[in-house]
Amino acid sequence: MDAATQDRPYTLAEMVDPLVRRVLARNPSPFTYTGTQTYIVGTGHDVAVIDPGPDEPEHIAALVDAISDARVVAICCTHTHRDHSPAAAPLAAHTGAPVIGCAPLTLEDDGPRADAAFDSGYRPDRVLAEGERIGGKGWTLTALATPGHTSNHLCFALPESGALFTGDHVMGWSTSVISPPDGDMTAYLDSLAKLYAREQDRVYFPAHGPAVERPRQLVRGMIGHRRSREKQILRQIEAGIGVIAEMVPLMYKGVDERLWPTAGRSVLAHLIDLERRGAVMRSGEQWTTIA
C-alpha cells in the first residue's frame, strides 16, 4: 500500500456533492484502487445508501455513524461482486431498510480475480428494472441497466444534482474488467454508448477512484480505447499470434505481470465480441480472422 493510499480518509463521511456523502472502505487492491466508495444520498430525514461495500465491521460502523438518525429508504447495489454488496445484509439488519437494486447473480468462476467473486449471500427485497425510481425528500434515484462488467450491473442517476453513480461500469482511475462468461464486451460497449447519449449527467461518482467531472469526454475515450484494443488484437492474429497467452505479453508491456491473467480475460471478451460479428473464429485456443 503506498503513502497516498495510507492517507485516505477511511471511516469518515465526506461531502462530495450537496446531496451526497462518501464513506471509503478500507479494502484497497489492484482492482479496487483505494477501496470501495459507499455513497449516502440525501441530507435530510430520508437517505439511500449506494454500494454498501464489503462486510467489514469498521466500514459498517462508519456508515451507521454517518446515517445517524436518518431513515434509510433503500440500500442499493450496482452489482454483486464481493467488494460492493456484502455489507447490505448487516446494514439492513441494523437499519431495517430494504435492499433494492440489482438482481442476484452468482457464478462458480468468473475468471482470475481473487478479490471479485460474486456475493452468494445477496438477497434483494426488490430488483429495479430500467427506469424504475426510488426517492426521499429532495432526491430521486433512477435505475439504468448497464450490463457488461457484470450482467446484473446498474447505474443510478440523481437528477436533482446531475450525478450518476456508475459502480464499476465507468471509473476515472482504470477501465472496467470484462471477464467472461458473465462479463460481456458487446453489452459493455452498448452500455457505454447508452451513457454517452445522456447529456444530462454532470458528474460520475464511481465505486472506486475520483469523481469524473467530464463524463462524456471520458466515455468517448473509453469507447475509443476499446476499439483500439480490438484493432490491436486483430493485428496480432493477422501476424500469426492467435493464442491469448501469447498475445497478452505483447499487448500489455509494462503492466504488472500479476495482472496478465485478468488482461487475458479482457482479450477473450473482445474476441467473443468479434466472433459474434463474424470477424474471427476459433479452434481450441487458436483464433484466426475471417476474410
TrEMBL record:
Pfam families, alphabetized:
Lactamase_B, WHD_BLACT
Give the source species. Answer: Novosphingobium album (ex Liu et al. 2023)
The protein's matches in InterPro entries, at most eight in alphabetical order, are given as:
LACTB2_WH, Metallo-B-lactamas, RibonucZ/Hydroxyglut_hydro, Sec-metab_biosynth-thioest, WH-like_DNA-bd_sf
SUPFAM superfamilies for this protein: Metallo-hydrolase/oxidoreductase (SSF56281)
UniProt superkingdom: Bacteria
Metallo-beta-lactamase domain residues: 35-208
Q: What is this protein called?
A: MBL fold metallo-hydrolase
